[in-house]
Amino acid sequence: MTQFEHRRTRGLAIALLALLSLPALSNSPAVEENQFLFAEQRHESIAELVAQFVQKSHYSHVAVDDELSSKVLDFYIENLDRNRMYLLASDIEYFERYRYQIDDIVKSKPLDPIYEIFEVYQTRVRERLNYALLQLQTEPDFLTDNEFQFDRSEEPWASDSQELDAIWRERIVNDALSMALEEEPWEKIQEVLSKRYTGFIKRLDQVNNDDVFERFMNTFAHAVDPHSSYLSPRNADEYRIAMSLSYVGIGATLVTEDDFVRIVNIIRGGPADFDGELKRDDRITAVAQGAEGEFTDVIGWRLDDVVDLIRGPKETIVRLQIIPANSIPGSPKDVITLTRGAVKLEEQAAKSEIVKVPREGREWSIGVIEVPGFYRDYRALSNGDADFTSVTRDVKRLIGELEEEGIDGLIIDMRGNGGGHLTEATALSGLFIDNGPIVQLRNSVDVNRSPPQRLDDPDPVPRVAYNGPLAVLVNRFSASASEIFAGAIQDYARGVIVGQQTFGKGTVQNLYPLDQYFRREDDKGFGQLTLTIGKYYRVTGESTQHRGVLPDISLPSNIDAELVGESARENALPWDTVKTTRFTAGMPLNNTIESLTASHVERSKDDPNFQYQMDRIEAGKRIREQKTVSLNIDTRRAVREKELADALKRENVRRVALQIEPLESLDDMDEEDVLDVQLDQATKIVTDMASMHEVDQAPAQAAQVKP
Predict the structure, then answer these.
(1) Would you say residue 436 has pLDDT above 50?
(2) Domains in the chain, ordered, with CATH?
């Protein structure tokens, strides 16, 4: 059978599968199907090369075999329909024939089954959205007692189209109800949702061969480990633009998830970072140009199309309509106005401040240095510039400035620091220890081949930039190089780690531009592969992978560690150990930490800000535990009003306890009213350390002898 005949047969099989399981929608305003999708010869060459890289160069030397094949199939189906809103149980059963074939397909056979699975998904999506368009011909009842289950990821696959119809009727009512709660008339709701569903189909039909291939190969890489990935030529170019930090936009990293565009990172030094309103895990529902422009609904859009809307000329305004992180569907949407600008390296530099802590008739000065990332200007360094920018140099300078002003203790704030240059992680650690190893690096899973590489403090002279009371403040978004630094400070007993368990990314990746491995016969390119090739270990021999760095003193956080972090990822590489390397630690801090913890716990009992934080965390947890929402508009309004009333009550309880004027509405809250509770707690802990340090340093008083 020729390749063309095989693809034609495949198309007929997909069409027959659809006809056997779904009724005709003769009155549906259907959108025409797109052109036939197929694997190009270069795709099959790339897949074969990626499989070779995975087996030979990945840290775990993963076997591309039946076990991986089974995992890839599950990941691919989940990637296509994580919430189980489109595919049927019969489709899943049909895909089972490929469960143990994907390894062979990737290594040496045509990729047609991958495109076949995608086309089945594409057909189901088109059928669902055409059904949704048909339902919009009648205004829904907003006074039912039904509920919409918005998280179906653990539910069984729908057995037939009638079951999916019932699920989608509730989804459509929920989509409409979310707008009705904003007092929009039915005609407007009908228009917006019609455009949304129709646009979704059109964008689905714009998917090309490269898009399907990238989606599958990226899923294949993620099935190996979460930090390995494949990018198509177009997205590889986008990655290079982002890494250059020279583009003009809002300074945020986006992904698509369940028809929404979600914020995964706020880039330090960018417009969103300066504005402070946009947060991780916020979901963008609409984008508007200028201060008065009309919003364009972007639910269901391709990611690159949304990015194109958000980008624009410098100093122009873009407005984002967002659903705040952890909000349930139908929650009030916020509008954030941002002025586009360039993200600059110098604006991501470390910054310092002094926080005054009054205690027992004295005002203590606690220095705080915020380290947003481990940056180094390698271009300036390679050009021979002796004054090249680096985080270590900046922090050393800031320490000197703080000590000139007279500080009693120091906090290095690593919250949200996702890492950066390894050289800077070792150099920054060296500012606080005399000298010695900082981290170990192993590039092979076979420990008998060679011992881990030891990376030392690059400054050979035994000296420190600061030797006073020190704490490192971390949270769940502190990752990679941040964990190397925090782990070294902890292992050398140089300071205490305060905050939340860190992310747990203890792996090393290498980027392979694939063009260099192929002869270019056209301008399409081959994309790039990012592959995990190594693992970091602390000087104690413990990996930071999966487990991260555990704080000496825990502080409450709004970030749910069960949802965020390496341990929340299904196929993350495990925690393990290597041999301890030789290093000289300071005196153990066990007794100090025990005393600091006891003081912190006792103080927190009567701290209104701490109690406020705990109440907010509990409220967020209750929201995250919800899996359904009411489809009754009166019930939804009552729930919304109660949530706002509870939030106002929490704030006013805090204000009254602090003898601050209560608010009539949350809209009256000023930016300065929002307290950084974690930093506030950390400054008090370091004040405890400074007080203990002062006692330890006080000279013994000689006994007075009477004449």
Answers:
(1) yes
(2) 3-224 (no CATH), 246-342 (2.30.42.10), 345-589 (3.90.226.10), 608-697 (no CATH)
